[in-house]
């Protein structure tokens, strides 16, 4: 019997859990992307290099492969492409393409959120530097400037006055592929993520975390769970997720939220309908024992997910991304003795003498740790860049 074909629109290290889960489900897995050396390709059955942000090229590839299902990688462009391909080939498991655009383009989502009373920062979208600059006086400084179509902290700036605004606007416009940006109010508070799984419009599983940052204030470098928030926070956010699911008629699958807790009120910063990056879904699996990657693949392929129910974290866990402190050559990654017994899993891809050119973005590996108490988790997670130290030449 010939295996059904599943195309993953990507093939990086973050997609490895999805690739393995799909193979366990019996799919012949084909990975894509435009980087031949991406780590995920060595785990798939076939690699067909194609830029997953090019939806027409990916549609052509999907037709030639005669795929039975498509799954997004941990990237918004991939989510858009997966929805586009699924819509054109009438594959199950994905929202309509226009719905996916609304969710993953920040200007569209901010407008939707404000229209429907969803707790989000006050924001406005712009397609010109002049229009954005002239509208800054309508905001109270500081503000955040973001490209509408990028994640991982790319192109984001905090603007505190008009004098530095133009450079930030130019940076965001330059990096945006659609040449659109949003300006939004700056929200103070603790930062968190809530990953939910929606089935028939209801949240049947959620996972709450604390976000941690190293040298880049806009790029999550670690996540820990259980989250340092009240149970009511998750209740509010799950109800909000269900409201969005109802308004947009969302299909079964992952619905991930980033939020800031401001005076005990959760303010949603970003949402997405694809797996978060940096092996986050493996983090969920370690903490709960639930095979989160499997359910994401199942939902993407239109398969039954009726057996998924709520499971709480079974202890205290952190996922830590190893990042260099500056540019230069890597000498060594040193693990402090005090955390060696906490490590339950890791994936490393750094090499001695490897050149680092963008230390604010580049990652050398990912480590999963389990702790004996909330206090140990908090203390060691905040100190992790010193406890797992990158020595540079």
From TrEMBL:
GO function terms (MF aspect): ATP binding; carbamoyl-phosphate synthase (glutamine-hydrolyzing) activity; metal ion binding
UniProt keyword annotations, A-Z: ATP-binding, Ligase, Nucleotide-binding
UniProt name for this protein: Carbamoyl-phosphate synthase large chain
Keyword Ligase applies: yes
Superkingdom in the source lineage: Bacteria
Organism: Gimesia fumaroli
Record flagged with keyword Transcription regulation: no
Signal peptide: none
């Amino acid at each position: 019997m010939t295996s059904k074909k599943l195309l993953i629109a990507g093939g990086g290290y973050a997609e490895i859990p999805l690739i393995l889960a799909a193979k366990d489900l019996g799919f012949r897995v084909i990975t894509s992307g435009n980087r031949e050396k991406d780590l995920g390709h060595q785990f798939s059955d076939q690699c067909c290099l194609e830029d997953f942000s090019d939806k027409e090229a990916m549609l052509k590839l999907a037709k030639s492969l005669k795929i039975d299902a498509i799954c997004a990688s941990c990237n918004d462009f991939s989510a858009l492409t997966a929805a586009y391909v699924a819509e054109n080939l009438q594959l199950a498991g994905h929202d309509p393409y226009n719905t996916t655009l609304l969710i993953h383009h920040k200007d569209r989502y901010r407008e939707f959120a404000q229209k429907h009373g969803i707790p989000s920062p006050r924001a406005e979208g712009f397609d010109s530097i002049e229009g954005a600059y002239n509208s800054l006086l309508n905001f109270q400084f500081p503000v955040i400037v973001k490209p509408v179509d990028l994640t991982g902290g790319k192109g984001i700036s905090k603007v505190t006055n008009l004098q530095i605004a133009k450079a930030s606007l130019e940076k965001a416009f330059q990096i945006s592929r659609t040449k659109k940006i949003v300006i939004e109010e700056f929200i103070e508070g603790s930062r968190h993520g809530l990953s939910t799984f929606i089935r028939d419009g209801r949240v049947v599983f959620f996972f709450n975390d604390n976000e941690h940052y190293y040298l880049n204030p806009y790029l999550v470098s670690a996540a820990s769970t259980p989250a340092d928030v009240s149970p009511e926070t998750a209740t509010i956010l799950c109800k909000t997720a269900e409201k969005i699911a109802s308004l947009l008629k969302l299909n079964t699958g992952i619905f991930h939220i980033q939020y800031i807790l401001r005076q005990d009120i959760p303010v949603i910063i970003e949402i997405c309908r694809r797996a978060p990056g940096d092996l986050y879904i493996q983090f969920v699996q370690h903490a709960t024992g639930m095979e989160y990657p499997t359910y994401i693949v199942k939902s993407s392929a239109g398969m039954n997910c009726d057996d998924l129910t709520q499971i709480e974290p079974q202890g205290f866990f952190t996922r830590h991304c190893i990042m260099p402190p500056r540019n230069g050559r890597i000498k060594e990654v040193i693990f402090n003795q005090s955390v060696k017994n906490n490590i339950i899993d890791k994936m490393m891809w750094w090499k001695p003498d490897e050149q680092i050119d963008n230390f604010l973005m580049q990652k050398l590996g990912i480590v999963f740790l389990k702790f004996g108490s909330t206090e140990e988790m908090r203390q060691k997670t905040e100190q992790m860049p010193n406890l797992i130290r990158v020595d540079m030449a």
